[in-house]
Amino acid sequence: MAKTEASKATSESTDTEEPSCDGRGHRGLPVTIDAEACERAAAIFRALGDPQRLRLLMLLEASERCVSEVCELLDEPMPAISQRLRLLKSERIVRSRREGKHVFYSLADDHISRLVTNGVMHAMEI
Q1: What is the DSSP string of 41-89?
Q2: Between residues 16 and 87, the one the model is more confident about
Q3: Which is it for strands 94-99 and 102-107: parallel, antiparallel or unpaired?
């Protein structure tokens, strides 16, 4: 019986103690996390979080396209496409260039291309 009481007392004292770590045995190096960069990345992920915008981005991943071409391929009205493109441009996910009366859109860079492609490919694995 004394043995049981001793083990109870030991488990009670360890249950109330806060876990501690002296830092020895850690494998990773110290990391600096840029809070501003995390905020920008979160905004990018929010912009990518809409299925309609992702469909649009997949079209642009394949090639640069003008707004009317995007509307035709997605079978959606120009105001809806323009609004999506405006948001994506404000987050620096797409870029535009004007040629006469046409405005052409493309993905901003290879980082965005890989993000979009990898996200969709990952979803297809399920």
Answers
A1: HHHHHHHHT-HHHHHHHHHHHH--EEHHHHHHHHT--HHHHHHHHHHHH
A2: 87
A3: antiparallel
- Judging by DSSP bridges, how do beta strands 94-99 and 65-66 pair with one another? unpaired
Nearest Cα neighbor of 105 from 73, 76, 82 is 82
Q: What angle do CA 109, 90, 58 make, to 5 degrees?
A: 45
pLDDT of residue 116: 94
Could you say which DSSP state residue 28 is in?
S
The per-residue pLDDT for range 35-66, each reduced to its tens digit, is: 999 999 999 999 999 999 999 999 999 999 99
Which position has the higher pLDDT, 70 or 32? Answer: 70
User: Torsion angle, CA of 9/11/17/22, rounded to 10 degrees?
Assistant: 120
C-alpha R_g of the chain: 26
